[in-house]
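User: Hi! I'm working on a homework problem where we have to compare a predicted structure to a textbook description. Could you give me the structure for the chain below?
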Amino acid sequence: MSFNVQRLLPAFFLIAASVFLSACASDKMMTLTTPPPVATTPPQGQSTLVLFRSSFFGGAVQSSVFDVTDGQSDFIGIISAGKKSRIRFRQASGV
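Assistant: Happy to help. Predicted structure tokens:
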């Protein structure tokens, strides 16, 4: 029984082409369908802090965020890596 490579070449190229073309699909190439969020001015005497994480390293790890300005740890939220995980936190100015 001989192994005929020429019979497998078309199937190999078909599989390779489908993998190559599907690798081009990415959410980074999508167009924006909703308007970007508009920055708002915080109320007088307050500041806004926006926290987010890059997904370059440690994308599977979530980060807990705490406020410890007054000596006690107050839980603010959990940030995951990615575009949609942001926390907006308002605090009195100068604290």
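For your comparison, note the following. The two ends are 80 Å apart (CA to CA). The first strand starts at residue 46 and ends at 52. Good luck with the assignment!
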